[in-house]
Amino acid sequence: MSENTKILVVDDDISIRTLCREVLELQNFEVDEAENGSIALSIMQTTSFSLVLSDIMMPDMGGLELASEIRLKYPDTLVILITGHGSIDLAKDAIQRGAFDLITKPFSMVELSQTVGRALEFRKKQLSVLPSPELKDLYNLTVNINISKHTRQAFLETLVKALEHTFRGDSARIYLANTPGENSIAKICEFGKEDLLSDDEWKSFSRKTLNAEGGILAGEYTDLPLPEKTSISSLMAAAIPSPDGNLGVCMVARSSIPASFTVRDLKLLGLFAAQAGNQLMNYRLTSNLRGHADNLAHVNILAGDFSSSLDTKQVLSSIVKGFRTMIPFDLFGVFLSGKDMLPLSYTMVRSDIPEKILNSDLRKLLEQTQESLTVSQYLDSGIRDSFACARVADWESVPNIEILDLSKFGSLKGMMVLANWSHEKILFHDSSYLSILVRHAAMALSNAYLFETSEMNYTQAIFALASAVDAKDPYTSNHSRNVAAYVMTIASHQHLPVREIKLLHHAALLHDIGKIGIPESILNKTGKLTSEEFDIIKMHPETGYKILRPVTAFGSFIDTVRYHHERYDGGGYPFGLEKEDIPHHARILAVADCFDAMTSDRIYRKAPGIDYALSEIRKNIGSQFDPEIAETFLDVLKTRTPESIVGEYISRGVNRFSFS
């Protein structure tokens, strides 16, 4: 056997220790002795052994516990246990603790020699062929790291602990280069004793490693000396490779174990470093992919916000907020126009932007690519909002400007303008995410703009029809308007949703549309109507229903028009519906319609007056009118006059279309 093979004999019986020593020294082994497991571990801190022979039953620390500690701390060292009470269970326990074999007392010199020989032969093969214990540690490190769940820092901290444990070092450190392939480095993590070398000395070895092919070995038997006045006995370091250059350095140092690192150790460390390089590259790729995914997810969320409303002002607000999360702008503007459409102009600027910038400098810059009339419409009309911004702006500098032609994303003409007066450029064309975001913004704006234009045309059509009805009778020219004011007041006090109030408003304006088909001789008759004439009058709700039914846009409120002359007790027309069978909106309209009829002059009579109207409503609660609706309107009229209700309706301009 090799003269360098060292064996430690551990037994509290000196005669057993002496016997083992004599047998082993005859075979040229170096032998040390220890009285128990604790003393053995203390000796192993300063001396490396190929094999430990240990009794199981000893004071302080027995052989089984010692075998477990050796397996954990010194995996290259094999253990043979000695016992006076052999059994199958004890053998199993010994193997589980990491023991190579079990010898039962009394044993012969031949049996001891053969068992030791088998152990050392096994150890020789274990150290010369793969997988070695170090490579097993490397394998475990590789398979136990999931880059989708661990951060780069977590991986490096796990790696540095593995280096210290695997190579039985007293300290391990990892440095990474600020830029791959360069000598600028920074400490990322460490494990073990921190003060074995100064930070400058650690960095010095790191830089040498980056420029040394195959890594470095420093110690007593190497060409690279260790610093003076250091407790380190050996140091090795390997560069972390990548296709772009070395990413950093892995280093391990020993002080308490006198055995120096070997070339084999350095090669194994190189495998760890290579795995670290692969893992770091994977983290970079994963990080880039995660960044792409995060950006796309962010754009998707913003696009959803853009298209979540058809209200132009809300869409503009969402677009501005979304773009501010991705672009450092000081000015954001949108201008849209279309045939037979009101132009839309909106600007969001920093609150501290000089007025001269908007009125002069920016105008000149925009006119270099846009028509002067277009620029004037953009800057001089529409809505302007402002926001506070702490970023430094150089108002004297030439701004970075992006002008986007929105006609590329739809049928409408227009542009989007972004500008800033800082050194951060707005790079739309270099970012696919921003291009996607602009496309979604343009589509959302176009949809809202077209919808509000359609709403304007729709509303104007309703008012035109209502005006046509009122024009047939000069005495009822404001009837539709007044009824609309009353139904909106009742609906508001009943806390109906905004959409329902809007539908009620349209139904009120058109509730008498069917009177277009009634001869004016009947409508304007000053005397009492005949039964035949009244039957014709009673046809107007159904006639109105038939007029409105072909228009899809009116479909949501035509039943309100059809049933607004039904009575709560079933005595109304045209179908004699009662109570809950009458649509709720129609019951509201019935109260408002009758109240205005009783408080307005007619060609055949003067208005009976508000007191009469109030008494009639009270008298007919539960017969003609829905009790809850009638009581709501009576409560309103306790504090408000009909004139104030109609006046508020007119002042709010609900019969006029507005983008705001």
Helix share bin: 40-55%
Strand content: 5-15%
| Rg from Cα | 46 Å
* Shape type: elongated
Q: Distance between the terminal alpha carbons, to the nearest Å?
A: 97 Å
How many domains would you count in the coordinates? 4
CATH classification, class level of the largest domain: Mainly Alpha
Please name the fourth-level CATH homologous superfamily of the largest domain.
Answer: Hypothetical protein af1432
Features of the shown structure:
660 residues; Rossmann fold; Beta-Lactamase; five-stranded parallel beta sheet; disordered C terminus
Structural features, described:
This protein is of the alpha/beta class and 660 residues long. It has helices spanning 14-25, 37-44, 63-73, 88-96, 109-128, 133-143, 152-166, 199-210, 263-306, 312-324, 355-367, 372-380, 432-471, 479-493, 498-510, 520-523, 531-537, 540-548, 558-562, 584-598, 610-619, 627-637, 642-651, and strands at residues 6-10, 30-34, 51-55, 78-83, 101-104, 171-177, 185-192, 216-219, 234-240, 248-254, 331-337, 344-350, 383-387, 400-405, 413-420. The N and C termini lie far apart (97 Å). Mean pLDDT is 82; it is low at 654-660.
Summarize the structure.
With 660 residues, this protein is an alpha/beta fold.
Q: What is the secondary structure topology, with strand pairs?
A:
Elements: E1 6-10, H1 14-25, E2 30-34, H2 37-44, E3 51-55, H3 63-73, E4 78-83, H4 88-96, E5 101-104, H5 109-128, H6 133-143, H7 152-166, E6 171-177, E7 185-192, H8 199-210, E8 216-219, E9 234-240, E10 248-254, H9 263-306, H10 312-324, E11 331-337, E12 344-350, H11 355-367, H12 372-380, E13 383-387, E14 400-405, E15 413-420, H13 432-471, H14 479-493, H15 498-510, H16 520-523, H17 531-537, H18 540-548, H19 558-562, H20 584-598, H21 610-619, H22 627-637, H23 642-651
Parallel strand pairs: 1-2, 1-3, 3-4, 4-5, 12-13
Antiparallel strand pairs: 6-7, 6-10, 8-9, 9-10, 11-12, 11-15, 14-15
